[in-house]
């Protein structure tokens, strides 16, 4: 019988499927536009059937919004502090078309409270690949809702969300700051100026400077096409200012960032202005995390003995 | 010949017209839906003609967005620190349908920079009626773009904008925090909880807690219909936190607030949680301010001798 695993990274806008061999190597990947907000006719079962079509009858592990209130089946959050083993022991099973799907729970930090769903699997992916970060680390997952995660001795001890990406989108698309602007141009100087403004805002914070995106433009010292980059710098800079003020990160500790591309590059540039060090965390964290959780849950060996 | 004044409070969404007698008493008021974004056919001249129809040929003084870049005629900002006399000496004249309109400049605080247009006339209205505040005061004008104004010896020494009202609208109407909520109900406890969260956020600020509007709701400890009041408390609370952190206000100084109604009532309740004292500033500030500026500019006596 074939050994291995099928992993699903099932978020709001996309469904990614991975087929692994029995050593955890990804043999095949699929990306479907069937996030939980954009399901095909037939809903979750139809999307699932398409994602695994012609693949062998392997155990299936899924993470992400598929386990949320508006997903296929709501899976309760697991409280921090927690480990990979506790996460693996808290899977919820769901039967569909003769297969059993196992769903990864999201995490909840009861001290705030704060929640994540999907990112916990990325965090596990880092833990699986970077033991030094797992011992004592600060993990940053930038995005629509950036997550700052504290790790200690292989446990997720807590985390917090900053809505930087969503605020940026709201302000550029719907607020007076983004109204009637010409198409944005890349302006590194404007970006750095925004980061500086956030840093200089101190305990008041960047909300006390938000309107400067308009007043500097009216003043003639910020070109209208550069307002977007200024706002990006102001909000990313404020996220870093918050991380320091709240004690999530400091100049003596390294921040490990999950992700790549233009957005992560902005965080790197902003961090250097703050005197913070950001390292790139290992890549392909979700597929690694799914494998690691399935392994800890005994899903792979269970199948082998079936 | 008739003596007196016509004053126009001409903003983005409304045009208010006041006819004064020669002592500054308002004899007649008109409100038209012709803000500069919603002009009738015929544009500014037609809106103006309608606002002053059948009124005597009095001097006309206008403040607000009518003097902005997208207004009838752009009037340059006047830098702080400034006084009523300097403001009155910086009017710009515009000829329309045989009448002369005098436009009040907005103010610019070059130290930030920050700008206001329209609120400067409200500030003058307070100065004209409350000499104690004019000597040394902190003026708060809550709204879409709240203004915090420092007064000293009858001068506006500086000011800052916090976009509290606009952020609240963006977050409730367009963000995930406001998505799929039932109609909001009044929940004083949720409002106070939001204010508390802002206060407790300390130097990190309320952006570090923004996502709690969702996580508390998912957690079951904040009813979905109360999320709006929680967000209102969080944002108004953060504005007060910023004011203290930035040194615009402190527990030993009184804050004088311009405005009335439900929004101002929220600021009063939030201030009491912060241990700050807010006094209600004198009412009808724009109409008083227009008269005071016209008087300082000699517009009323000029007309009398014409």
UniProtKB/TrEMBL annotation, chains A, B:
Keyword Transferase belongs to the record: yes
InterPro entries: DGOK, DGOK_C, DGOK_N
GO molecular function: 2-dehydro-3-deoxygalactonokinase activity
Keyword Transferase: yes
CDD domains the UniProt entry points to: ASKHA_NBD_KDGal-kinase (cd24012)
Protein name, as recorded: 2-dehydro-3-deoxygalactonokinase
EC annotation from Swiss-Prot or TrEMBL: 2.7.1.58
Taxonomy of the source species: Bacteria, Pseudomonadati, Pseudomonadota, Gammaproteobacteria, Lysobacterales
Gene3D superfamilies in UniProt: 2-keto-3-deoxy-galactonokinase, C-terminal domain (3.30.420.310), 2-keto-3-deoxy-galactonokinase, substrate binding domain (3.30.420.300)
Alphabetical keyword list: Transferase
């Amino acid at each position: 019988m074939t050994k291995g695993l099928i992993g699903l990274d099932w978020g709001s806008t996309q469904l990614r499927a991975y087929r692994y061999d029995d050593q955890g190597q990804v043999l095949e990947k699929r990306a479907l536009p069937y996030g939980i907000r954009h399901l095909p006719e037939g809903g979750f079962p139809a999307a699932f059937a398409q994602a695994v079509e012609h693949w062998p009858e392997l155990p299936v592990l899924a993470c992400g919004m598929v386990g949320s209130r508006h997903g296929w089946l709501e899976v309760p959050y697991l409280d921090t502090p927690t480990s990979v083993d506790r996460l693996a022991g808290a899977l919820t099973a769901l039967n569909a078309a003769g297969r059993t799907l196992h769903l990864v729970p999201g995490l909840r930090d009861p001290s705030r409270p704060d929640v994540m769903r999907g990112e916990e699997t990325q965090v596990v992916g880092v833990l699986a690949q970077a033991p030094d970060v797992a011992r004592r680390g600060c993990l940053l997952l930038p995005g629509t809702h950036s997550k700052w995660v504290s790790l200690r001795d292989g446990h997720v001890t807590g985390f917090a969300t900053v809505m930087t990406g969503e605020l940026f989108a709201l302000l550029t698309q719907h607020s007076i700051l983004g109204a009637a602007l010409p198409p944005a141009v890349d302006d590194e100087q404007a970006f750095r100026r925004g980061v500086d403004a956030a840093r200089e805002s101190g305990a008041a914070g960047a909300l006390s400077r938000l309107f400067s995106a308009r007043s500097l433009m009216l003043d003639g010292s910020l070109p209208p096409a550069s307002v977007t980059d200024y706002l990006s710098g102001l909000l990313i800079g404020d996220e870093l200012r918050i991380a320091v003020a709240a004690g999530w990160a400091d100049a003596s500790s390294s921040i490990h960032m999950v992700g790549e591309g233009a957005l992560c590059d902005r965080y790197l540039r902003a961090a250097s202005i703050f005197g913070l060090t950001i390292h790139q965390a290992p890549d392909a964290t979700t597929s690694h995390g799914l494998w690691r959780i399935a392994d800890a849950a005994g899903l792979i060996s269970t199948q082998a003995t079936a």
